[in-house]
Amino acid sequence: MSGALPFEVGAMWSILGVAIAGLLYAVFLSRQILRADAGNQEMQAVSNSIREGAGAYLNRQLRTIVVFIGILTVALYMTAALAGSGWQIAVGRAAAFLMGSIFSLTVGQIGMRMAVIGNVRVASAAQRSFGEALKIAYRSGTITGMLTDGLGLLGGTIIFIIYGKFAPEVLLGFGFGGTLIALFMRVGGGIYTKAADVGADLVGKIEQNIPEDDPRNAAVVADLVGDNVGDCAGMAADIFESYEVTIVSAMILGLAIHPFNLKWILFPLLVRAIGVISSIIGTYYVRAFNEKENAFKSIKRGFNLSASTSIIGFVLIAWFYVHDIRLAIATFAGIMLAIVTNYLTEYFTGTEKAPVKEIAKSSQSGAATLLLSGLASGMESSVWAIIVIAFAILASVLIFHNTPSMILYGVALCGIGQLTLTGNNIAMDAFGPIADNANGIGEMTHMDKKSRQIMADLDAVGNTTKAVTKGIAIGSAVIAAVSLFGAFGDTIKVVTGVKDFFVDVSNPYVFVGFLIGGAIPFLFSSMTIRAVGRAAYLIVNEVRRQFKIPGLMEGKVKPDYAKAVEMCTTAAQRELLGVGALAVLSPIIVGFIFKEAALGGFLAGVILVGQLMAVFMANTGGAWDNAKKTIEDGLYGGKGSDAHKASVIGDTVGDPLKDTAGPALNPMIKVINMVSLLIVPLIISFKKWSPFIVIMIVVLLAIVGFAIWYSKREANPKIG
Amino acid sequence: MSGALPFEVGAMWSILGVAIAGLLYAVFLSRQILRADAGNQEMQAVSNSIREGAGAYLNRQLRTIVVFIGILTVALYMTAALAGSGWQIAVGRAAAFLMGSIFSLTVGQIGMRMAVIGNVRVASAAQRSFGEALKIAYRSGTITGMLTDGLGLLGGTIIFIIYGKFAPEVLLGFGFGGTLIALFMRVGGGIYTKAADVGADLVGKIEQNIPEDDPRNAAVVADLVGDNVGDCAGMAADIFESYEVTIVSAMILGLAIHPFNLKWILFPLLVRAIGVISSIIGTYYVRAFNEKENAFKSIKRGFNLSASTSIIGFVLIAWFYVHDIRLAIATFAGIMLAIVTNYLTEYFTGTEKAPVKEIAKSSQSGAATLLLSGLASGMESSVWAIIVIAFAILASVLIFHNTPSMILYGVALCGIGQLTLTGNNIAMDAFGPIADNANGIGEMTHMDKKSRQIMADLDAVGNTTKAVTKGIAIGSAVIAAVSLFGAFGDTIKVVTGVKDFFVDVSNPYVFVGFLIGGAIPFLFSSMTIRAVGRAAYLIVNEVRRQFKIPGLMEGKVKPDYAKAVEMCTTAAQRELLGVGALAVLSPIIVGFIFKEAALGGFLAGVILVGQLMAVFMANTGGAWDNAKKTIEDGLYGGKGSDAHKASVIGDTVGDPLKDTAGPALNPMIKVINMVSLLIVPLIISFKKWSPFIVIMIVVLLAIVGFAIWYSKREANPKIG
Q1: Which residue of chain A is at minimal alpha-carbon distance from B408?
Q2: Number of domain units in chain A
Q3: Is B514 in contact with A608 (Cβ distance < 8 A)?
Q4: Is there a domain that residue B433 lies in?
Q5: pLDDT of B594-630, one tens digit each?
Q6: Using CA atoms in the order B664, B666, B668, B670, what is the torsion angle rounded to 10 degrees?
Q7: At what angle do helices A167-183 and A235-257 cross, to 10 degrees?
């Protein structure tokens, strides 16, 4: 803590206190949930199946991850030690990596376990009142939100208290820990959830013509687990990662402004602390003031309260502590970015808006026109999303036009602002699968009509909140990546001692890196789409097999839910090794072969194409999904019509795009940027080709080649 | 001609002679075709309908284009005059623009007219022998090829003879002329061909269940015309553009190496002259040596002969004239790039290869899995295509590693090499619609079975040759754009007099330009896909209306073919205004607002994303098309099976992707680069914001905004 002024010391301990307060709030909420009624025995039986399935998934994934954490803790130590950073930094970075991984795992694990504890209680509460059901569902989700908030802030603050101005170097480890777990959670979760979903639907709804969530379908529990795996654990880990990564880059860039004045480093942490307080206030305020209120309205009211509180907060800090109101404006730009992104997502995927209406209309001339209409609309949505991001960056350019050295810091603050209300955002997101699961439990246990209606309404609102936050996840990934990209340049300047560093794409070397970088998101998407296809095929066969068991269709014999869960879990873990290898190793290979400037070009390509493809796939899939829903609600002939059949094809194509391939690009973009930041000092220090590097690159290329080959295996494997 | 050595003078006149020889060869071939038997009266009636339709399209398009040419001739004069280049350059550039436009129009007009003269003669020849039919079909296509080759070389050489080392500045006008026409031809043609195709198929094949090319279908002639419009005129204009643009950039970059030694500028022209000679030899060699020979084999034999001849030729020039064998190696790398690109296209879209087989297989579980499999495979194809381009650039880096200033010149030579065999490539491409049309004439006039089989075989081979050359068109567009990008940097250095110019994407301004650039291909694709949907809808209604005419279905009344042709033509012209405005104005707006470095970032984004999307859409569509064909040939239940229905959906989605949106990106990439190169001196000279610039930007933004809005009008308009 050398060089800190008394005020800074006090501020830091206060931030620590706020982080802990956030966590205590999560504990407080979880006690509330646990006290609530858990429903009758039948409901508990279903809930237990989901819980066991979720537990099996989490445990199986943990086993895979632990191995990676072990290897990478050593690797992280090496990245610092080999670059000559001193043993304190090296040990700190490895320990921070461990902490980052564990925190991210904790968010995923506890969040998801609380979600599966919450769902049955929501179902039970729906029998009593709408207000209670809403409160339980939202607060179960808030637990994940506050864990993300609290642990993210806690980690960053602890490291800062210990390391002071050396914190950024150590924080890289913390960020990478979160990043790695997010990759696993997002990609593995994405494959799991779609394999289960497609497997359950294809055989159940289409072949056997039984309803969704029918208890005779062996994959129905896997499908319910999948909603949690994808939308709760995957999403939380993804946002947790952006949360950390924006702190890391803001600190690196803040340090670059003035190496002896800590206020630029402290400001992001203070903003985040205000965010935690605002989220506590806002989320606690979410409740139904009467039985007829719209759930979405209540949730939005809480969000608005949090937003206002936090804006007031960081104006005060910027004015009275940093004495530079521009910092508050840059942070505010981030909040605006989040709001506009949400609006764009809603516009391009909402059932009430023109694009989805047009897509639904084009179903009248068949699936092909519906698909084309969706593709055209999805491509356009990507254009606006990227233009909004461009404006956010421009805002920073304008705000700091007098001090150009602060522009990139401004972009990082934009990311800090964007994720200020992480508590609310994740609460909104996790609310989706909890309401969905409660509805599923209602269907499987044949609950009364009134309660079912309450849960169906909550489920519908959950779909909206879930969709809206998806835009935030992608937007924040890109802003985080852009600030990491800025930090990348700064790091190179520090390491080389050269004042200027360019990523000059008119240089042929850099251009080559740039082209390869742009190709990576296409390769990644191709691999994840194929992975879903393969995994779904296994589940389809398993469900078909179980339907043939005598007595099962009559409801006399229970299907083996656990088997389907296990198959999804195993398939997801196996599939993500290939894409994981690609994400981690591609920047290392490009960096060592083409050097740091080309690696910069590579990063630029990854960010640009990654953003475009992520939004395109997410919104195209979301729009097809909702086009189907509007038709199912009676448009153009409703269920069973030709228009409906066309829309089902659109929805099925869109599912892996919006829930697997699209979201998987967020952690991919950040992992690649994070790895680049970690290895760039090593790349610079290796001025000459040694046999060791040649061997290493050959081995890494072989691994990536194997991963790609592996991802292209026969998509429809024979089952023994 | 100041400063040229005697040898150079002789060489230039020789090149001019070769260019004229290429044109004379085209005249010679066209006389051969015209002498051939034109079939019986019935066949001629159909052929006349197609010819009239083609003529109507060409004339209607000409009227639109002439206005643009007029405006832009003045604008081109201004770009040079305002930048202070002197009146000789300004007048030269405007005149060159006029020449470029006229040459490109000539290629499109004569090429297409020869194709529709050839088709009926192929049908007639098929009644006599396979060998004669092949010869007439291929030679009709060769005429377009040799016109492209000959006029491209002629224009470049004339300008060089007149302007000497000032030629590059004037050549910009020549290149832009070709570029503009290519945009019109490619985009307009792409919209036309798919609107007619979808319109004819949706009503004829699907609603009325009558065969393709049935004479009762009002859109059938429009469809046959469309094949020529898209694949013959559009493709030829596209390649003509790349042909010119690679010459322009090679000359600009060659001049940068040494301002007083013309050999670097002369080398590209010499290589191209060799290409013309090789193409004459190789194309004339294409014939069937016996009646059972495979047509593809004959065509390939001619290609190989041309390739060997030209390789020998430019090794000799590099060795004995330039005394630098590296130039031959770089050019050779271009030929290799063309061959590998062809192979990749064939692999990802060929019926015999794994990807199409897998896509066809996935049709068994429905349209959704077929679509996903196609998307995954198309995304992957894009990865390999871009990696091959990256390797081509790397090759240049390695070849010229001793003289880094020559690396970009090496990339331009790669583009020169890639298009050496333009004569053969376009012949192969135009062969496709000619054989297709002959087959259509056979079907419409109920020819005998043996002749029909010959034409069906030629048609199938035509589909392959057409698909293979599509890869070349995209690959050459990107290499051309990369060299233009290099020339862009050089131009800035010359104008500013500053030794170094960076497109540093780690600079926030440049990054913003870069993000916007990446968004453009998505916007463009979204607009063109919608345009096809809108135009197709009009045709569908028209065909439906005509089917209701009493006596038409019984064959007693002839449908009004001309009406459908005219509707397609008008719709295509109207639709392309929006996308044309976007392509021409977006670089001007970005350049003036964000300045030259950000414009560089913008170009990088356009090239990267344009290439990825173009290949993705072309190959995905091509693979779906061929998956349908393999199923129609009997796989998985053949025609009428569920698998077939699924594959028809895939094919219909793929059609606008592969024939409109994908190919439209090629001229878009080049137009944007060309416009940037033209305006960058003006951007640099406007150091301060003046009211004039502000007004200009607002007006341009309004035009682009209007164009985007226009492209989003109700996709299914009501018909009065």
Answers
A1: A508
A2: 1
A3: yes
A4: yes
A5: 888 999 999 999 999 999 999 999 999 999 998 998 9
A6: -160
A7: 160
